[in-house]
Amino acid sequence: MSIDIKNLQKELLSIIKESTDRATMKSVSKELADDIKKRTRDGKSSTGNLPELQTPTVRIRKNVRLHRDTSPEKSNLTRGGALLNNIKTTAKAREGTVKMMGKQAEKTLKLEKIGFKFFNASKEESKRVVEFIQKAINKAIRKFNNK
Question: For 117, what's the count of Cα atoms within 13 Å in the CB-facing half-sphere?
Fold first, then answer.
């Protein structure tokens, strides 16, 4: 006696395809990018607080026009707003990407080397991404069960 599981395999592939479609990946990517921007503007990194600004940096920031989301003493990588505004997302089926664009990509690498590690997902953010995708999978399974 044997059991034919070809239909089950086909349905499982369909569930995975539906739960990781472009629209879902776009939503996940955008939410993660927004989380990174908000957390960084609040002075947090993916693992804690961003390093405090050094005194010369604070002095310089007191004499320049700053972005509305920062102050001279606030360590949040938002002096002019360009860095965080250049975080962009792309999505296609089964793949969502959050990336830094243009000159800001090089600046991000330099900042991370000196301790400003902000362009990663925190454990909490990663957990939310997994939960989001799990909800999409559960929705697809419920749809399959109701056929």
Answer: 8
